Amino acid sequence: MKRAMIKVDGNSGTKQGSGLKKTKRIPMCKSTSVEEFLKENGENSEEDECENLEEEENIMGEEENTQQIGSEQTEGASKKRTRGPTQCLKIHARKSADREEVVLDDDGEPIGPNNRSVTGLSCFLGTVARNSDLCPLFYTNFKALKKANKDRIWEFITDKFIIPDNGSRAVFSRINDAWRRYKKDLKKSCFLKYTTMSERLKHRPQTVPEVHFKQLISYWKNNNIQVI
Q: Which of 29, 130, 165, 203 would you call most buried, defined as having the most Cβ atoms within 10 angstroms of its Cβ?
């Protein structure tokens, strides 16, 4: 079998006569706000989106009016009540003087004082990730969000728990995972499931401000994001 000589980073190597396939580099979105991303990528302005929404509403108006009563009755009969995300109301109501101390291992991971405390902290961090004031969704990734809001988030958490500073890495890692998961679920249930702006806005969660949600819709529709 013939072998051809090639150079890789200045060093000689060999490859089979059939050739080697180069791994295609996956484009990544830089860490920034969604608004800045849309500006840089020439996305439609909010005025354009509003015009599109008005046009959609005019087209769909008559059809929605004729089907509204029947669909509401069907929804009421078939809609199954499901348990929402944990809210950790007791922890949120906790005063600073009643804070629980978190025990960390040598790597800064929460391990105590008991399993219930660790679970409570984890659930609480999930509520932080879904908080639109502390962790808004209008960032392209968590790195940009953390850079902008890290001090506020850490202050909020340490007002409910006593956590040594070396535990911040584990804490933000959990918030990162929960934030990304929340954003992914929101895209699946409120964006991909529907085809028009009016339908998507109609099913917007009340916990997500409308202005943030509109930015997310434009972001998810962007061609570059579709590729990524």
A: 130
Look up residue 86 and give its two tokens. Answer: 């944990």
What DSSP string describes 189-211? IIIIT--SHHHHHHT--TTS-HH
pLDDT value at position 43?
A: 55
- 40 token code pair: 């840089």
* Per-residue CA distances from 155 to 12, 99, 225 (Å): 55, 13, 33
Amino acid letter, 134? L
Closest to 113 in 3D by CA, of 160, 158, 163, 168: 163
Element (H, E) at 115: helix 115-129
Q: What's the confidence (pLDDT) of residue 227? A: 81
